[in-house]
Structure formats: C-alpha cells, structure tokens
C-alpha cells in the first residue's frame, strides 16, 4: 500500500469516513466483529491547525431505552454495551515520519486523556488512508489492527 515518498501533513489533513476495519489475526478479527459489527461507522477529522477528533462505533448500535434526552434511566448493562461499542477521542496531533501521534485531551475513555494514541500511517494510490495500531492487551497478547479511511 505504501508510497515511495514521505507522507506530509497535507496528505492527511481533512475529513475522512471509515471504509473498512480489520485485524491481522483471525481471532482478533472475530473479537473486532463482536465489538464493532460487520459494518462499523466512523469519521476522523484532521485539521491543519493541529487538532483532530476521531469517532468509531458499531454500525448497528441499538438505541438506549429510557428518556432519549439523557438515557440516565437506561439499564447499566445497556449503557456498558453502548460504551464498549464506541471509541471517541481528540486532541493535538503531529506527524513523525509515517507515524500519526495524538496527544489526547478528551476521550470517551478517561484513561486515554493525557496520554498519546499512536498510529502508523499508509496512503494508497487511490488516496485512501490506513491507520495501523499495535496494542498489547493486559494478558500480554499483541493485537495488530488497521482502520481504512476515505477522504470526503
């Protein structure tokens, strides 16, 4: 997928919608399908002024029960499922070679705030962008995942 020249900030700034999400390992892919479904939805906005915001969710999330204005009366299990099927974070970003780094300033998961989210970047000849993530789970298992985006 890669290119023979250096990825620049101009190459990645803009608004991108999710095209596909995947994993290197079939078992990781099974877990990903359980968490995000077979048709996940998402958007990432990478601004030239150095800010970004990303959201990714299960493509078929059911509405929470209860008062739609707040959902505070929805059962805890339903709210946990909604939380577990959604990722959102944002902050200041920088590009170091083919690595996209976000200094997280806000996130659905408060544990991400103050830390960095690090993704490899690949650009396809058709203009699509692939962000790559390698993460170690608490049990020591390393998961390699990717998310492919199309500029809108």
Annotation field: number of helices: 3
Average pLDDT, to the nearest integer?
90
- Named CATH topology: Lipocalin
The low-confidence runs, each spanning 5 or more residues with pLDDT under 50, are: none
The proportion of strand residues reads: over 45%
> Residue share in helices?
10-25%
Assign the CATH class.
Answer: Mainly Beta
Along the chain, the helix and strand elements come as: HEHEEHEEEEE
When the domains are counted, the total is 1
Number of strands: 8
What is the CATH architecture assignment? Beta Barrel
Q: Going across the biggest sheet, name each strand in turn.
A: 1-2-3-4-5-6-7-8
Give the overall silhouette: globular
Distance from N terminus to C terminus (CA atoms, Å) equals: 20 Å
The value of Rg in angstroms is 16 Å
Biggest beta sheet attributes: 8 strands, antiparallel, barrel
Helix-strand makeup class: alpha+beta
Keyword list:
about 150 residues; alpha+beta; Lipocalin
Question: Can you describe what's shown?
Answer:
The chain is an alpha+beta fold and 152 residues long. The chain has a single domain, classed as Lipocalin (Beta Barrel). Helix content is 16%, strand content 45%. The chain has three helices and eight strands; from the N terminus they run αβαββαβββββ. Strands 1-2-3-4-5-6-7-8 form an eight-stranded antiparallel β-barrel. A hairpin with a 2-residue loop joins β4 and β5. The longest helix has 11 residues. The chain is globular and about 50 Å long. It starts with 8 loop residues before the first helix and ends with a strand.
């Amino acid at each position: 997928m890669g290119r023979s020249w250096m990825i620049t900030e101009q190459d990645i700034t803009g608004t991108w919608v999710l095209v596909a999400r995947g994993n290197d390992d079939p078992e990781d892919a099974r877990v990903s399908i359980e968490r995000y479904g077979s048709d996940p939805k998402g958007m990432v906005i990478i601004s030239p002024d150095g800010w970004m915001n990303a959201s990714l969710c299960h493509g078929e999330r059911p509405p929470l029960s209860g008062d739609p204005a707040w959902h505070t009366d929805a059962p805890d299990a339903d709210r946990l499922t909604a939380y577990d099927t959604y990722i959102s974070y944002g902050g200041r970003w920088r590009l170091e070679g083919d690595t996209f780094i976000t200094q997280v300033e806000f996130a659905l998961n408060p544990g991400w705030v103050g830390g960095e989210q690090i993704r490899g970047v690949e650009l396809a000849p058709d203009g699509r962008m692939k962000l790559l993530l390698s993460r170690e789970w608490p049990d020591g298992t390393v998961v390699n995942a990717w998310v492919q985006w199309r500029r809108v």
